[in-house]
Amino acid sequence: MxxxxxxxxxxxxxxxxxxxxxxxxxxxxxxxxxxGQPTISSSQLGAALGIGDAQVRKDLAFFGQFGYxxxxxxxxxxxxxxxxxLGIDRIWxxxxxxxxxxxxxxxxxRGFRSRGFHIVALFDNDPKKMGQTHSGLTVRPLEDLxxxxxxLGIELAILSVPAxxxxxxxxxxxxxxxxxxxxFAPVPLNVPPTxxxxxxxxxxxxxxxxxxxxNGQGGxxxxx
Amino acid sequence: MxxxxxxxxxxxxxxxxxxxxxxxxxxxxxxxxxxGQPTISSSQLGAALGIGDAQVRKDLAFFGQFGYxxxxxxxxxxxxxxxxxLGIDRIWxxxxxxxxxxxxxxxxxRGFRSRGFHIVALFDNDPKKMGQTHSGLTVRPLEDLxxxxxxLGIELAILSVPAxxxxxxxxxxxxxxxxxxxxFAPVPLNVPPTxxxxxxxxxxxxxxxxxxxxNGQGGxxxxx
DNA sequence: TAGATTGTTAATCGATTAACAATC
DNA sequence: TAGATTGTTAATCGATTAACAATC
Lengths: 224, 224
What we know:
- 2 copies of one chain form a homodimer.
- Chain A is an alpha/beta fold.
- Helices cover 41% and strands 19% of the residues of chain A.
- Chain A folds into 2 domains: 16-86, Winged helix-like DNA-binding domain superfamily/Winged helix DNA-binding domain (Arc Repressor Mutant, subunit A); 92-204, Rossmann fold.
- Chains A and B meet through helix 1, helix 5, strand 9, strand 10 and helix 9 of A and helix 1, helix 5, strand 9, strand 10 and helix 9 of B.
- Chain A binds a DNA duplex (24 and 24 nucleotides) through residues 15, 17-18, 41-43, 52-55, 57-58, 60-61, 65, 67-73.
């Protein structure tokens, strides 16, 4: 799993904020590429995202030397490098756990699949949902999680169960050897340090928006 | 709209990170209250969320003095104060714009309504969707946005249209006088500084998760 | 009172921005 | 060469943590 090219010699872990911006850079680069642009400067790349040129260069420099002084960055080359750094130069077999309204919608959401996150199995504990089919996949009981995980090589889980069930299900997920959880349940999850968790909390986002509106603070906040 | 109690004398705007944590505090306080707890200390409050006691006190102190030395915080009182600070002590009439898979799911998502964000109108430009009903609301054409906004007093918009349409629709939203946008489209929006935007970018979150898994960085990242 | 816990100040840490020599 | 732009160092800024007098 270790990869000498993914991290600079110092081997320091990239700050959280850097990774978020790298995702944005990648998407902007893909847009510029679609328009036939061969190279891009740090100031061009940042301008579209409201990020300064020094910040762009510093972020990219964290992972290696990708630029050409006087020229900028070759878009195709940088896209390949960033996809590799972010780990989306591969397929991630992913389980969707919890098939309420949000879970069912997320199954159909195209943005995941186009980035390599393939939902390969659905889980829920509601007997009424068992055997239902969504997007060609059959809903399985949670007790099948361990077996299905090894059968299908599942590596990530998207968790959209009710808050009360979240920790219990997270424990099951961890026990199966799944290494990452995208958590939509509005509770912090307790997992071993070897397991990655990213929390997406829609109410928190909307509350932040309400605060900004009330306090007349405009502008763009990128929450990921 | 200005409210002398919402901000401390200095009138400084709360840092982004503080607001995010305040949302988490509020939810934790509500959980503690359901268990009948009357007061809570900063270390208790932080412990459940993985946040240090000094950080909790500093965050809360930003908005005023809520604690009692030797005792902690009175939960009921602090909940009321935080709801007020976040602006969720009221109803926010909200428009859902874009009724793809994600938009339709978000209509049904309970987490919004329970926080005071009431979806009162649906908009889409697809003629096939016009007149459809979801959760008791009829889909309207976007050209009705301005009229409906003033009729229903709409204040916020949840934007879940395709990336290509996002900026154009955002311009329409702004023109109607709506003051906040929760943006699910994977593009940065350009709006006047008087309009608040919070971006929710699911692919960015998942990419971050992939990075963490590949680089063996575990733990919990709260993205809001 | 003694024990607990706050609000706040000072110290530390990390992240962003500015500046510029090196490079194409 | 002259102009453009990088990668990196130093300076600035902001956020977190630690410590503690004040308070109940």
